[in-house]
Design brief:
The chain has about 70 residues and is of the alpha+beta class. It has a single domain, classed as 2-Layer Sandwich (Ribosomal Protein L30, Chain: A), CATH 3.30.1390. It is about 25% helix and about 25% strand. The protein has a three-stranded antiparallel β-sheet with strand order 2-1-3, with no helix packed on it. It is globular and about 40 Å long. Keywords: Ribonucleoprotein, Ribosomal protein. Part of the 50S ribosomal subunit.
Amino acid sequence: MAQLKVTQVKSIIGIKRPARESVRSLGLKRINHSVVVPDNAVNRGYIQTATHVVSVEELQEGGASQ
């Protein structure tokens, strides 16, 4: 299953409640905090609600061997 790396890039102070709750539901706690979440409809909805506060990267399948 695909994974998304979500990073909070702006403060949630002063943003509307649904966006603030979406950021918290993703597990983000502070600016520059990143989490890896599964790429599913629920998480995509959270991200869509708070696009102005978070940045998203898609992680590649099959990690690199070291």
